[in-house]
Amino acid sequence: MLLLLLLPVVFIACGEINLEKYSVEEPWVRSMPPGSKMTAAYFTVTNNSDEAIRIIGAGAAEFSSATLHESVVTDGVASMVEIPVLTVLAGESVSLEPGGKHMMLKGGRFEEIPKDCCALRLEIEDQQPLLFYAPLNKH
Fold this sequence. Notes:
Layout lengths: L1 H9 L6 E2 L3 E9 L7 E10 L5 E8 L4 E10 L2 E6 L3 E3 L4 E4 L4 E6 L10 E8 L5 E8 L2
Parallel strand pairs: 2-11
Antiparallel strand pairs: 1-2, 2-3, 3-8, 3-9, 4-7, 4-10, 5-6, 5-9, 10-11
């Protein structure tokens, strides 16, 4: 609960965040019609450090749960597979985009999202969480 109270202090305005060790570019959350309680967030995370990082979890202030998933097709059948750990090698980036890796957001109330932005969090093993805002896409 304390983390939710600190979000306005910690987060940067809706859009990109660039820190010394990590950066998040082009974050956005797919907006859904009223009554929808599930969506996905997309962004590119870059590891600017000299060591690989392991993203071990996710969170979102406006949703009851956030997890990392990947859309896969096996024998012609599409499904989603949870990603328990997402590794980003030193100096490299990983893109979360429609049809591939994404942050699944469940239990949200779109009508309660302030300023059309979602407060998102990536849990990085042995590091402070990476906190950022992602605007709602209106498509």
